[in-house]
């Protein structure tokens, strides 16, 4: 059983002041596999102090110095990819397709940031004014357990590229991944205090970081409810915020879509990461005129989403992360039936043959209206709904009738029509005939899906403050 009893402060592994021990489980077996000693308020304040001290010199580093750090981080993360992959599979049940396909994005974040720094103009001229893009200060980075490694790499890469120092508070549910990742940061010889990592509870460490007067920016991925609390905490000191929050993304199948490719793609989006992604397309909007065909295509495509051991390369859907999440998803499956929706696939309980582990049957409801709770609330599990529409205008209306607006999908055989619909959908990202976004494009939400943007120059500038000097 693993015992993780250190945090990373000022370039050193140290024993936290906090004493709470948090158990770690393998969601595929429900077996306890370790424990992590959690940081507390004292540790959080020490991490901010370390980052503040480091900022004095780090904010003055040259492009070349920061590029060298980013290159070392890319190499260090690449060297630990196999260890990180194994931890993702064991600790939260990520399937091999996810870890093999998405985890290499982590070192790629440092590569992309290094390339961007090289070409970015930190000093610009506008009229008679010199505009200097200066690092913000100390940034607090708060990440969830799902794809934690990629999220941390992305946010830290942007901060280092900008000359900003960071305190990272990863989820306590991803402590094994965090330990390996921290070792990768340490091996890259990042200057002391530039990256500090404190695993702790959100209502303890998170509250300190989001209200601390020496934290200039908070970058968070998680639920809308927590995002609202962060905004309240940050208000007194006017912190800059990047918040990527919940989603209930629509996948619009227009009546000219090729269902043989569109439906499998829609399901892949909805079931991505075992249904545990905020940008999943969990509402499938289907034309009433082709509803029976959509149902048939879904039933045919479901065979590709085998549930089981995430180590098995043929597995498409692994377990959800915890008993608490399993119970939550089961409650929504019951709720959908109580609301009058019809099960097209899946249902309550574990899949046949799986008597251990927090495995959920990939579930699809039809006969759903957009006013049902299963169509309006983020479930965060492999549960999708099919909602019919009569024409493009109604599809757009249903798509936009949600408090969320993170990512949407449009499938159509007519590029111009797809563009016309996409431009009317209220979401930070709208993908046409694809399910993965462009890493060069801004990513973030509208409405209650958040504020601010990540990726490329947008993520870099989220860590910079323009200063105008006019002579």
Automatic annotation (TrEMBL):
Report if keyword Oxidoreductase is assigned. yes
Task: Note the InterPro entries from the entry.
Answer: Ald_DH/histidinol_DH, Ald_DH_C, Ald_DH_N, Aldehyde_DH_dom
Is Oxidoreductase found in the keyword set? yes
Which Pfam families does the entry mention?
Aldedh
Q: Which domain of life is it from?
A: Bacteria
Domain spans labelled Aldehyde dehydrogenase: 14-467
Could you tell me one molecular function GO term of this UniProt entry? Answer: oxidoreductase activity, acting on the aldehyde or oxo group of donors, NAD or NADP as acceptor
Alphabetically list the UniProt keywords: Oxidoreductase
Q: Which family does it belong to?
A: Belongs to the aldehyde dehydrogenase family.
Name-wise, this protein is: Aldehyde dehydrogenase family protein
What species does this protein belong to? Micromonospora acroterricola
């Amino acid at each position: 059983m693993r015992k993780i009893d250190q945090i990373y402060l000022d370039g050193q592994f140290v024993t936290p002041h906090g004493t709470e021990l948090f158990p770690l489980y393998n969601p595929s077996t429900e077996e306890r596999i370790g424990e992590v000693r959690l940081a507390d308020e004292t540790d959080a304040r020490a991490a901010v102090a370390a980052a503040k001290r480091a900022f004095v010199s780090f904010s003055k580093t040259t492009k070349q110095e920061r590029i060298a750090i980013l290159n070392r981080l890319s190499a260090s993360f690449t060297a630990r990819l196999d260890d990180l992959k194994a931890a993702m599979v064991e600790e939260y049940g990520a399937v091999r397709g996810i870890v093999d396909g998405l985890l290499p994005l982590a070192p790629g974040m440092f590569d992309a940031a290094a390339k961007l720094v090289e070409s970015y103009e930190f000093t610009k001229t506008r009229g008679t004014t010199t505009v200097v893009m200066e690092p913000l200060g100390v940034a607090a980075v708060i990440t969830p357990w799902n794809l934690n490694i990629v999220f941390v790499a992305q946010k830290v890469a942007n901060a280092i590229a900008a000359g900003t120092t960071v305190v990272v508070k990863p989820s306590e549910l991803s402590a094994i991944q965090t330990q390996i990742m921290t070792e990768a940061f340490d091996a890259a010889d990042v200057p002391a205090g530039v990256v500090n990592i404190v695993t702790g509870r959100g209502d303890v460490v998170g509250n300190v970081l989001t209200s601390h007067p020496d934290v200039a920016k908070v970058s968070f991925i998680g639920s809308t409810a927590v995002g609202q609390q962060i905004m309240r905490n940050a208000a007194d000191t006017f912190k800059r915020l990047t918040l990527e929050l919940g989603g209930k993304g629509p996948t619009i199948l227009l009546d000219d879509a090729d269902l043989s490719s569109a439906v499998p793609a829609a399901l892949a989006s909805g079931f991505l990461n075992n249904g545990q992604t905020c940008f999943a397309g969990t509402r499938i909007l289907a034309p009433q005129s082709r509803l029976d065909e959509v149902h048939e295509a879904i039933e045919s495509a479901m065979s590709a989403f085998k549930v089981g051991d995430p180590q098995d390369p043929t597995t498409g859907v692994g377990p959800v992360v915890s008993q608490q999440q399993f119970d939550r998803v089961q409650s929504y499956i019951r709720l959908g039936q109580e609301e009058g929706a019809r099960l097209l696939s899946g249902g309550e309980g574990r899949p046949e043959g799986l008597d251990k582990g927090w495995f959920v049957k990939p579930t699809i409801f039809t006969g759903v209206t957009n006013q049902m709770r299963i169509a309006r609330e983020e479930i965060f599990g492999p549960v999708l709904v099919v909602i019919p529409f009569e024409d493009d205008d109604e599809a757009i209306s249903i798509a936009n009738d949600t408090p969320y607006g993170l990512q949407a999908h449009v499938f159509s055989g007519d590029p111009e029509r797809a563009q016309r619909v996409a431009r009317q959908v209220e979401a930070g990202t709208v993908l046409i005939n694809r399910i993965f976004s462009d890493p060069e494009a801004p990513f973030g939400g509208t409405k209650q899906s958040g504020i601010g943007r990540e990726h490329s120059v947008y993520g870099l500038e989220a860590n910079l403050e323009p200063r105008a000097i006019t002579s």
